[in-house]
Amino acid sequence: APPEWDWRSKGAVTKVKDQGMCGSCWAFSVTGNVEGQWFLNQGTLLSLSEQELLDCDKIDKACMGGLPSSAYSAIKNLGGLETEDDYSYRGHMQACNFSPEKAKVYINDSVELSQNEQKLAAWLAKRGPISVAINAFGMQFYRHGISRPLRPLCSPWLIDHAVLLVGYGNRSDVPFWAIKNSWGTDWGEKGYYYLHRGSGACGVNTMASSAVVD
Amino acid sequence: AAAPAQPRAASAQAWVPPSPELRAPALFALEMFNRGRAAGTRVVLGAVRGRVHRVGQGSLYSLEATLMEPPCNDPTVCQLPVSKKTLLCSFEVLDELGKHVLLRKDCGLVDTKVPGAERAQAAGEPKSAFTQGSGTISSLSQPRLDNRNETFSPVFSLLNEDPLPQDLAVKMASIFRNFVITYNRTYESKEEAQWRLSVFVHNMVRAQKIQALDRGTAQYGVTKFSDLTEEEFRTTYLNPLLREPGKKMKQAKSVGDL
């Protein structure tokens, strides 16, 4: 892996979104990944619809939570994702209003990534932003800097928040993952969370996945 | 951990030079104590006693140490009579794989020449929590939520007292008011606002503890979620389904194989 990488500066990442009072992080994590995959494979950055997943992915539970693995299946089975403009976010479940003819992106498959953070970094630099899930310990009060809670407090077994890895690097020799969150720009570092890299902090390496766009 | 209501006097229990095992955490606590102090005002380590508790790969040291302040050499600021002051401190230091973290620091002045030092303290010496850190409570400027360097350490150190000291309660109310304005919060009733203030104060204590236990460079404090209980935050914003086993996906090829 290169020593540092940031997909934000390469145009592969849309602006930070806000899930509102709704546990839909899984949808934001997955659309963020698909946005990156589409950009890298098709050359266009489109902001994609999370609301479509809330309304039309019947395996997941909309604001009550969901899993990236089933969201990829839903996108594939539905026939793609509409854009944010066409199917905008409401923050609560509605009747499914997906129109296949309005779908702007599709995915062919999804894959699970390595739990080795060095391999994850190499994959990210070559293939794009990665959907991950973490233990959100301390994030309620996070303001800035690189978070590294003591391991027993931020167990990799208690995963409860899905986010998007968009880059990595070092700040004053402290290695970090740059993580796009979905709590708006008025949280964290303009909506981003920085987590220690290389120690399996908060289970960041346990549920890494990506869509595949051919 | 609660700050003591009054500074303490050294007990009659024998004090000994630090044992080899206590020396490293004691020196670390001393270094943390002296951080930011000018060269002429740094304290030196006196006696140390303590115990160690093994936790997984780490050790938690509960230490009591006497720290000696240097005599005042600047006649323009020295108080009379000039005397060398001793501090009695409790520290909790976590040593995980050789890396130390100071979890608690709690010091009080002890005048070793005068028996009944607690009475002397009560008669006029400031409380330890006011004399440490970056300033006193009364010298804290009006908190500004947009200032990323803002820390509430001096406030936090008193938050465990119950009930809160009057001036701290006022200060917390002021921080909460700024929070309400910054994040455009509205509450349905006075009672709810009062309840949210108490949640906010409780959360400041939680943020301080999270801060103390973070080994990175992160800063924790007031955020837009600071008036939510832990349960409210978890049920509203987080995703419990992620703990369930997901659909099995194909393993990606590693980059080298691509």
Tell me what the structure shows.
The complex is a heterodimer of chains A (214) and B (258). With 214 residues, chain A is an alpha+beta fold. Chain A has 4 helices and 9 strands, in the order E-H-H-H-E-H-E-E-E-E-E-E-E. In chain A, strands 1, 3, 5, 6, 7 and 8 form a 6-stranded mixed sheet that branches. The model of chain A has no long low-confidence stretch (mean pLDDT 97). By secondary structure, chain B is an alpha+beta fold. A 4-stranded antiparallel sheet of chain B has the order 1-2-3-4. The interface between A and B is large, with 66 and 48 residues. Strand 4 (142-144) of chain A pairs antiparallel with strand 5 of chain B, so a sheet runs across the interface.
Structural class of chain A: alpha+beta
Q: State the largest interface.
A: A-B, 66 and 48 residues
Q: Note the beta-strand portion of chain A.
A: 15-25%
Radius of gyration of chain B: 23 Å
- What structural class is derived from the secondary structure elements of chain B? alpha+beta
Q: Describe the main β-sheet of chain B briefly.
A: 4 strands, antiparallel
Distance between the termini of chain B: 53 Å
The poorly predicted ranges of chain A are none
Strand content of chain B: 15-25%
Name the assembly state.
heterodimer
Sheet with most strands of chain A: 6 strands, mixed
* Strand order, largest beta sheet of chain B: 1-2-3-4
User: How helix-rich are the residues of chain B, as a percent range?
Assistant: 25-40%
H and E order of chain B = HEEEEHHHHHEHE
Rg over C-alpha atoms of chain A, rounded to the nearest angstrom: 16 Å
- Envelope shape of chain A: globular
